[in-house]
Description:
The complex is a heterodimer.
Chain A: E1 7-11, H1 21-26, E2 39-42, E3 51-54, H2 63-66, H3 94-98, E4 105-107, E5 112-114, H4 120-123, H5 130-134, E6 140-144, H6 145-151, E7 155-163, E8 166-177, E9 185-186, H7 187-192
Parallel strand pairs in A: 1-8, 7-9
Antiparallel strand pairs in A: 1-6, 2-3, 4-5, 7-8
Chain B: H1 8-15, E1 35-40, E2 49-55, E3 58-64, H2 77-81, E4 95-98, E5 106-109, H3 111-129, E6 134-138, H4 144-158, E7 163-165, H5 172-182, E8 199-203, H6 207-210, H7 214-223, E9 227-231, H8 237-240, E10 244-246, H9 253-267, H10 272-278, E11 279-280, H11 282-289, H12 294-301, H13 305-317, E12 321-325, H14 327-330, H15 335-349, E13 357-361, E14 380-381, E15 385-386, H16 390-399, H17 414-422, E16 428-432, H18 436-439, H19 443-452, E17 455-460, E18 472-475, E19 484-487, E20 492-496, H20 509-519, H21 531-542, H22 554-559, E21 563-564, E22 601-602, E23 621-626, H23 642-647, E24 652-655, H24 657-663, E25 670-674, E26 679-686, E27 694-698, E28 727-733
Parallel strand pairs in B: 6-7, 6-16, 8-9, 8-12, 9-10, 11-22, 12-13, 16-17, 17-18, 23-27, 24-26
Antiparallel strand pairs in B: 1-2, 2-3, 4-5, 4-18, 14-15, 19-20, 20-21, 23-28, 25-26, 25-28
Helix pairs in contact in B: 3-20, 4-20, 4-21, 5-15, 9-12, 9-13, 9-15, 17-19
Amino acid sequence: MPVPEHLEFFIDPNRCIGCQACVQACAECDTHRGYSMIQLDYIARSESPQTVPIVCMHCESPTCAEVCPADAVKRTEDGVVQSARKPRCIACNNCVLACPFGVPKMETPMELMMKCDMCYDRTSVGKKPMCASVCPSQALFYGARDQIERQRPRSRPIHRFLFGRQIIVTKVHLMVPFESPVAPMDVIAAFRETVIGHVFGPNFSAETMVGGGK
Amino acid sequence: MAALPAKVEAIIEKFGPHPARPSALRLDPGVEPDKVVRTHCCFCGQQCGIQLLVHGNQLIGFEPWMEFPFNQGKLCPKGVKRYLQGSHPDRLLHALERDPSSSHGFRAVQYDHAVSRTAGEIKRIQSQYGPDALAVISGASLTTEKTYLMGKFARLCLKTPYIDYNGRLCMVSAAAGNKKAFGIDRAANPWADILKAQVVWISGANVAECAPITTDYVWQARENGARIIVVDPRVTPIARTCDLFLPIKPGRDVALFNGILHIMIEKGWIARDFVETYTVGFDSVAQYVRSWNPKYTSEVTGISEGAIRQAAELWGTTTTSFLLHARGIEHHSHGVQNVLGAINIVLASGRIGREGCGYATITGQGNGQGGREHGQKCDQLPGARDISDPEHRAHIAAVWGTGPGELQGPGVDVYEIFRKISLGEIKGLLSISFNPLVSLPDNNFVRAMLEKLEFYCAIDFFLNETAYHADIVLPGSLHEEDEGVVTTAEGRTIKINQAVTPPGDARQDWLIIQDIAGALGRERGFTFASPREIFEELRKASRGGVADYSGLTYEKIEENFGVFWPCPDEDHPGTPRLFEPGSWNPIARGAGPFYFPDGKARFCVASYSPPAESTDGEFPFILTTGRVVSHYLTGAQTRRIGPLADHTPEPFLEIHPHPARELGVSDGDRVMIESRRGQMVLSARVAETIRPDTVFIPYHWPWEKSVNQLTISAQDPISRIPEYKVCAVRIRRYAGS
Lengths: 214, 737
């Protein structure tokens, strides 16, 4: 059974609390028990507790598949990019190096590329993926688009990303502030931007704090 | 008993903590579970619903339980990995007896021998020194049936007044404040009311790490238009996106609440009709806060006047609100005053007892709520009854088939129990699910007291660090090895279901307690055949009390995904929201919605006093302590779960870059932290997310990594909670290895 069309995956980094429930739950998934396919990082822990979870974005034209010399990476009809097929994977690392989002992992002992397959064993039978099931703050959300649009009026989903001159359209959506002009998101430019203003939210400034205290 | 029976390293080598990881059965996707058990996570007061997967009497994993209404499948990393505590290599399979001749300090003994030795020592101590020479310390992670049995065991079987529990370190300031103001100690509202609030005020609660699922409620409220105010000395994850952040100096919360009330009065933001109809005591509180003008409040709290005025305006002018607090305002030598200050601004707003208008403490321990209701607190009898009240004593004595004169009076808090060991008044100790050597403040004192005991029996499923000092260890039961009820932070009583049976000689804790009673020849009242039988007696014992469970049954609880107490008869649907206008309770009897004879809530003057220990030139930093998301309490369980231990393998010192620069400390450097009581060496985490005058260390580790070597044993005079959140320390770069 394919993954139902009306159910989609949304990442809302604004909500991430860095708890690692997704990372831990991912390793409980039946298709890759013991291995977590999610990357969770602090942006700049010295400045903020902000973290971002990275799951596979499931590109419409997956770069990982395009660069695979062995044709081991397949995207199923329902738009899910699967882990490399074991009989074909030659563990060359091309996909790991080429993925713009840094998703595939080379499991060297098994000589196999593994990646997030949106819990295909679960989503293809109508369940939510493990990570989005457990995520305490629902930074990882799996459900109908009208539901998330209704529940999160301050944000909107985007799924177009710019890497240099390459535009990538993904099955998974990223929630950005509603008024944000971003579309597509220029990922490389974002790396170069210096942090300005209140991007990182509350701090210990003269606005909120006075010295001393009795 | 004296010093440890072997070197710490040798005991650790045998008994752990060894981190468990998924392996074999758990990694084989071909293994199907024999059964799927709907139960709850054991690791905090939210008690998330979870389905445990069982194969051949072993937990092999979990499946989210999407239908359970509180968390709808959501779990934090502790919940996800909780199954790894089952079939653990460190699991106690046999009773142990202290044996200094053994390389690791203990020898395995027959269970019956261990029970009869325990009974023999209890008899000897009590006949030699009197019944009061024996103390019992219990846990708030146990099911309510067990906590009920522990209270009954101490008072009826051992006839000692000295029983207290580790909720003393957690929820008691909130409990005392709530009883003073509302006459009842329970969250006033279900969490569903958070979603309907226009302002959510969070004081001293690291919601994202200590009650992760609550984050979704708060942030969904924000999506619905609520403004979020966070009061904390650290930018915690919940603070990151709040609308107003008040970076309070630790220990000054009541000053802020008084300052807010001052502005509310000045601006006319008081719900006069509500105050008039439903409360007493407003005028004296108004008089007290007159001096708490914004300037003075700012000077005391370290928060700018502008931010204080903004908070008062947000709070004062909204129509619906929810105020949440947790240990951040409660772990103080004036924790009850902090709580009363919070309640005063709720009562003055009139926003309680209605949809979207609420107040709650976020209870921390697994059964923090249920575990503080039915008689293991030193001054309490089942049903949240008062042990000093003759009517209450008579009711419980009748249920227990004894005379009220046979029941001991109030005992003392757990720290005082250790002081009584110091005075030579207490000679023997029985502990269950409590690890005071890690969790009590100034724990070098605690260690010396453990060494002074004549006899110590510990009941637990792993050998926790305190139990290293035990003469006898009895192998108890894990959460998933027994059934019973617990009550969540919301006040929802839920059902824990058994997934597996205890391994080896281990058995359910209530059976162990009954076996000790039997070996003492005092089995009357301790012959229950099941947790259900204990629960049936508990229902009778709680009937007519404030915490009335008499209308609850196991079946009703499961059918309804939990039922909120009070639930005074079987047709009663339970009480999700307290204090609704027109509601009935057994104290007011229709006079009003609050739990006093006149039905009115109490404004209480919440007076400010500084923390017990001030910073000075010698010890210039405020040390505050707390949790991280991957660990629970003293880490006795979570340090044994590999993926959680990997996430946060050891404590750290969080320090602001300004003082770090002055100290010559960079991120990752080793630093020596010293208080007047102890010292420790940790790695520094230099970050702008903490006040420059404050440093933070999490508390889940023992021995040289225990921050409670440094903390102070100052306690709140009312709740007796220790002041974990403030003591004075000095810091220097540590050059040693």
